[in-house]
Design brief:
Length: about 300
């Protein structure tokens, strides 16, 4: 039973649920009410959205598994509780496991291309699967570039929904240019918030994993530039999150009172993070920062529920 529980943790269930939630929340709390207010419905059928979300989850899960495979030596020092460190798994068994979700990703991508009559889906998912593999095997050793690429990949998720709802978006643009502009504004800002929050987490993890990374001559940003510059970059990311939150409140016509209340939560968490970043100097401090950054991302996702698209 313990092994099953460890395997479930190995799959990063919280992160995968967050990925799935992004699709459902944006589709049914942004796109659906916005389109309905202009007299038309969603382009996607429910099963098509489920497949797009499920395929994205499969890509993310595959990325996590591959990342842990290449990080085994590092995790023996940093995270000895990780599944591949605690339990011996042969390369044949592991890659047999990996190719199964990859095969599903390709099959679902081809089905989506025919179902949605768009060739984009044939290459998008295999491309991001390759990016996740490349990141795990070598790109993460190249410092900030690796952090940027993985953060960009996660931040691209809201735009997949726009791509899937392209027909509805074009119709919306023809009917109401302002509403279409507001949609692009919100997608842009929330994507940037996802990017910056994840970027900060990646940098914090670089600090947490320094011992193992150093033993393997990893080229993480922290090992290359040191604690001071890494903390500065985390601080800039957090402050930009706060700045984007303020910009959204000023520019959006969809803001509700509930959104404003949650913005105070973002303010409190951001100020707390900034203070902790300035004061932190030990690994334990940065472990708590990583958790608080997850809370910040969760608040941001809940804020989407509180918007009033029209």
């Amino acid at each position: 039973m313990k092994k099953v529980f460890d395997f479930i943790l190995f799959l990063r269930p919280f992160n995968l649920v967050m990925v799935f939630a992004i699709f459902w929340i944006f589709e049914y709390f942004i796109f659906e009410p916005l389109f309905a207010s202009h007299g038309f419905g969603l382009s996607l059928k429910s099963f098509q959205l489920d497949l797009i979300a499920f395929n994205t989850v499969l890509v993310a899960m595959t990325g996590y598994l591959i990342n842990d495979w290449y990080d085994q030596s590092i995790d023996r020092l940093n995270k000895p509780y990780r599944f591949l460190v605690k339990y011996s798994v042969s390369s044949a068994r592991f890659f047999g496991l990996i190719w199964l979700p990859i095969l599903f990703v390709i099959v679902i991508a081809v089905f989506l291309a025919f179902s949605l009559r768009s060739f984009h889906w044939v290459w998008i998912y295999p491309f991001f699967t390759f990016i996740m593999w490349y990141y795990a095997s070598s790109l993460k050793l190249k410092g900030l570039v690796g952090n940027i690429v993985v953060s960009f990949s996660i931040a691209a998720i809201p735009w997949l929904i726009l791509l899937a709802e392209k027909t509805g978006f074009i119709l919306l643009k023809n009917l109401d240019q302002d509403a279409a502009s507001q949609l692009v504004l919100h997608l842009s800002i929330f994507s940037l918030l996802i990017f910056l929050s994840n970027m900060a987490r990646e940098l914090v993890k670089d600090i947490e994993d320094a011992k193992g990374d150093k033993s393997q001559n990893s080229g993480s940003f922290f090992l290359k530039k040191g604690l001071k510059k890494t903390k500065r970059l985390v601080l800039v990311s957090v402050l930009l999150v706060l700045g984007l939150e303020i910009a959204l409140i000023m520019k959006s016509t969809w803001i509700t009172n509930q959104f404003i209340y949650l913005s105070f939560g973002v303010l409190v968490v951001s100020v707390f993070l900034a203070f902790k970043v300035l004061k932190s100097s030990e690994k334990a401090h940065f472990s708590s920062l990583s958790f608080v950054l997850k809370i910040l991302m969760l608040i941001g996702l809940i804020q989407v529920l509180c918007l009033g698209p029209r």
